[in-house]
Design goal:
948 residues; 84 strands; 1% helix; elongated; disordered N terminus
């Protein structure tokens, strides 16, 4: 042929006529023509100069729509020269059976969607192409429920929506926790006024003529409250350079912003519940507050202070006085320092039982004459005053007053006294002091009734003082301290243990062990606590308790206490953790032990896992089932790590595992047919979201409290934290709300290290694994207890210039340890001997003198014990090689120089002997013969040089 005519048909309809072209056209020209008709379905046939010969479609195929598994038929009718041949194709691939004018598809699948082409050829080779589209009808395809997490305040509106893809009209049904919501049949779905009953997990089912699809994701609606601060701040006194910590705790909707303020100005970066100042400087002093805020409100704390602290110091020292017996002496020092200040007066280095005020009132007498010292301490230091001495100008008459106090019972004591002499007994009055205060006054002839209505178990001090008719004190009895017995049992019983727990879906039966009471009032009963809340109690003879009204599939911490006859309650016994099972629809069938997965049946369609959501300790599993044969499905069996977890007798294809914890699991899901046969397993390995706490910190605030703080950044779908369980040394302490990420433990003992851990608790009540751990050392509280009283003091002269001391060691009960021993000679402090030494040699003495020693113990906190019993020794005289003899006289002695020496040495009898006075610097002063010399207070030392 010299030329061909080309005609184009698009989708069976004639297109514009093309130009004639020579069959011998060049390749570039052919390429140009091809590019001109890209994207069209072209059918060409050739004509000769004799005329047109063409295939004509008289009845083209028609578009079809069908569900998966339904049949579909395409037909075409055409005319042309000679016999016609047909070839059907799909996606460019010829269909082997598609060689007739009719194409029958017996069961369509999703892959059959698209355009089907039929090519018709006549005997001349002319062709025509027809086409039709097959639309596969599917159940709706859903996007994500938006928003996935929503915090809503009470009374506010919230709207949920979802994206739907469907070729057919759809209907909606919204669900809460899998249950349909009445009237919620449109999208978007709006709750106009949110209440507590609207809290929960929402999903949606969308249906069309083909089927129903459940949303892959869910929306969780939570209550959003304004902040409420429930842990108040307190002022702090801090030494310059020490650390300070404020902890504030608030509840309310998240996210919640935190901002600390100093003197009314926000502190940059201070946006956590705990404010920690590492080293307090002068500029850090002032007023602090914290503000919590969220989308619906704010809460601001009261203002507290950081005050720069200072140890105590004296601005005025106590002043000693000379006075007469019966006078009242006031010792009035002035002290400054950070409050609170504690005071302790000492009399002759012995603590005064009731001398605990800054001023001290003393009734002057022979018994109260001596040295007074005030010790003042606060949390930041200790200081002792100068010694103030009270001296009596004229000692009172030798009159003694003896007081006798005897305990009658726990509320009554009997007090009597007697006085050795009284110049005018008919005018003598007696004042009875109780705990340092005048309690009663007795006149001559008054009866001495018993003292009643005392507080059982309390300590009292009684003292009787006698006064003459002019009101002057004439005698003072020694204070007598009594401690009455305690009438009331204040000792709690021993805590019981949990012997057994039998959980039910709505409760449990708990059996406790019997225990004993140690306080004497007897055991009266037991209490059962679940998650720290008492839910059952009974008499001492009841050991088994049935608790109902509990939530199913919920974890509980169970512990018990014992109560005695006076209401003392023991500590919680060892806790047990138990999970209530799910409630069955009918009477619960007996539960078989965990079984391995069953033998599969390949005819049942197996699940496949397109999707899962990893929550905090929870896992939301989603799967699909491709079921082209439409085999009836009864439900699904879910296995976790090879053991049956649950059975779903429903067509739902999702499951929320709220007990997944923080570890990975292998999940296998089997489809159950109506006959009971099971499919092959659809498996997946999933690890739950990491719920471990961040920046966990445990720090001792002082010797009585430990502060805990942490950060929890996880916000994941499918599992939500409702509370924190706090453990100390692996023992449960307390549960606090999830919105709080700080805790102060005040139930600690000083000088001890504690280990803390925090475990999250999900909204389902499941306690997850330990998430935050940390330790804290609680420092020792200031030691205010003096060491024990030293004993066994023995003083023995070694020679005329040395006395050796020996005593028994003591122990310290306050915790600061014994630093040493203070040695007193003739009432004056000589030295301090550092422990553990318990001996001392005194060389600062003279020959031929008597010395009296006593010792006291002192610890590293400057606490000083009372003085020990005294021990005395006398040094011998020391004859010199030249015959010189040393001797001493004491206070009140008289020496006639040189005649009256015979009492000291026979060698001094010589009238020619020379007497010398030893000066304090060791020099000698010659004394004239027959001169009287009266030594000053303390005595004097001499030596005599005999005549040569």
């Amino acid at each position: 042929m010299n030329a061909d005519a080309v005609r184009h048909i698009h989708r069976g309809q004639p297109a514009r006529r093309a130009k004639l072209f020579d069959s011998t056209a060049t390749k570039p020209r052919l390429a140009q023509l091809a590019r001109a008709f890209v994207g069209a379905i072209l059918t060409c046939w050739l004509t000769t100069s004799a005329g047109w010969a063409a295939v004509t479609i008289t009845s083209p195929p028609v578009d079809q729509s069908a569900r998966i598994g339904d049949p579909a038929t395409f037909s075409v009718s055409a005319t042309g020269t000679g016999p016609l041949t047909y070839q059907w194709s799909h996606t460019g691939v010829a269909i082997l059976e598609g060689t007739n004018s009719t194409l029958n598809l017996t069961s369509v699948s999703a892959s059959d969607s698209g355009v089907f082409l039929v090519t018709i050829t006549d005997s001349t080779g002319a062709r025509e192409v027809g086409s039709a589209r097959l639309l596969i009808l599917l159940a709706p395809t859903l996007g994500f429920v938006e928003p996935m997490i929503q915090d809503v305040f009470i009374g506010g509106a919230v709207t949920l929506n979802i994206t739907v893809y469907s070729d057919l009209p759809v209907t909606y049904q919204w669900l809460r926790y899998g249950h349909p919501i009445a009237g919620a049949t449109s999208a978007p779905f709006t709750i106009p006024s949110f209440t507590d009953s609207d809290i929960g997990l929402y999903s949606v089912e969308v249906s069309n003529a083909v089927g129903t699809t459940r949303s892959l994701s869910s929306a969780f609606l939570r209550r959003f409250d304004p902040p409420t601060i429930w842990y108040s701040l307190t002022d702090q006194d801090v030494l310059l350079g020490d650390s300070a910590t404020f902890v504030a705790i608030a509840s309310g909707g998240s996210p919640m912003a935190i901002q600390w303020f100093h003197n009314g100005q926000p502190i940059a970066g201070a946006t956590n519940s705990a404010l920690f100042i590492e080293e307090v400087q002068t500029q850090d002093a002032g007023y602090y507050a914290v503000e919590f805020s969220n989308a619906v409100g704010k809460a601001r704390s009261g203002t507290v202070q950081i005050r720069l602290a200072s140890p105590p110091s004296f601005t005025t020292q106590p002043q000693g006085q000379h006075t007469s017996a019966g006078r009242t002496v006031m010792l009035m020092p002035a002290v400054i320092g950070t409050a609170p200040l504690s005071y302790q007066w000492h009399f002759n280095n012995i603590p005064i039982p009731f001398g605990t005020s800054v001023w001290l009132t003393v009734q002057a007498s022979a018994a109260t004459a001596g040295e007074y010292r005030l010790d003042v301490r606060n949390l930041f230091g200790r200081v002792s005053s100068d010694v103030a001495r009270i001296e009596i100008d004229a000692p009172p008459a030798d009159t003694t007053l003896e007081t006798q106090v005897s305990v009658v019972d726990c509320r009554t004591v009997s007090i009597t006294w007697s006085m050795s002499t009284a110049e005018h007994p008919e005018r003598t009055t007696y004042r009875l002091f109780r705990d340092g205060q005048v309690y009663r006054v007795f006149h001559p002839g008054d009866a001495l009734p018993n003292e009643t209505n005392l507080v059982p178990g309390q300590e009292y001090s009684y003292q009787v003082v006698a006064y003459d008719g002019t009101g002057v004190e004439v005698a003072r009895g020694t204070p007598v301290v009594v401690h009455g017995p305690d009438c009331t049992d204040r000792t709690p019983p021993n805590p019981p243990s949990i012997l057994g727990i039998s959980p039910r879906c709505d409760g449990m039966t708990v059996t406790v062990s019997s225990t004993s009471d140690t306080g004497g009032s007897g055991l009266s009963g037991y209490k059962i606590y679940l998650n720290g809340v008492p839910l059952a109690s009974g008499a001492a003879t009841v050991y088994t308790y049935s608790i109902s009204g509990l939530a199913q599939n919920t974890r509980y911490i169970c512990a018990a206490t014992a109560i005695d006859g006076t209401g003392n309650e023991s500590a919680l016994g060892p806790p047990r953790i138990v999970t209530t099972p799910s409630c069955p629809a009918g009477p619960p069938p007996p539960q078989p032990p965990p079984q391995p997965p069953p033998t599969p049946n390949s005819t049942i369609p197996a699940p496949s896992f397109p999707y899962y959501v990893s929550g905090c300790g929870t896992l939301l599993l989603k799967w699909d089932v491709v079921n082209p044969s439409k085999i009836p499905i009864a439900g699904f069996e879910i296995y976790r790590d090879g053991s049956l977890l649950t059975t779903l007798m429903t067509n739902r294809t999702d499951y929320l595992d709220e007990t997944a914890g923080l570890v990975g699991h292998n999940y296998d899901v089997y489809t159950i047919g109506m006959s009971g046969a099971r499919s092959d397993a659809g498996g997946i390995y999933v690890t739950a979201a990491d719920c471990r706490l961040k920046q966990f910190r445990a720090r001792a605030l002082n010797c009585k409290a430990v502060s805990l703080s942490w950060v929890f950044p996880v916000t994941s779908i499918g599992g939500f934290i409702s509370a924190w369980n706090i453990y100390r040394d692996e023992a449960f302490v307390q549960q606090i709300p999830a919105g709080t990420m700080a805790f102060i433990d005040t139930n600690v003992v000083d000088h001890r290290t504690y280990s803390y851990s925090i475990r999250p608790v999900t909204t389902a009540g499941v306690e997850l694994e330990r998430s935050g751990t940390g330790g804290a050392y609680v420092p020792a509280c200031p030691d205010v207890t003096p060491p024990g009283l030293p004993s066994g003091l023995v003083a023995s002269p070694a020679n005329c210039g040395q006395i050796d001391l020996q005593w028994q060691p003591v122990t310290d009960v306050g915790g600061a340890d014994v630093r040493g021993y203070r040695v007193f000679k003739n009432g004056h402090l000589v030295t301090e001997v550092r422990a553990p030494a318990t001996n001392y040699s005194d060389y600062a003495i003279f020959p031929g003198r008597d010395y009296t020693y006593a010792i006291s113990a002192v610890d590293w906190s400057e606490n000083v014990s009372a003085l020990s019993k005294t021990s005395s020794a006398r040094t011998p005289t020391c004859p010199a090689p030249d015959g010189t003899i040393y001797f001493s006289t004491h206070l009140g002695g008289t020496v006639d120089a040189p005649a009256n020496f015979s009492a000291n040495t026979s060698a001094a009898a010589s009238a020619k002997a020379q007497l010398f006075l030893v000066q304090s610097d060791g020099s000698l002063e010659a004394l004239e013969p027959a001169t009287e010399f009266r030594p000053a207070n303390g005595g004097a030392d001499f030596y005599v040089k005999p005549a040569s």
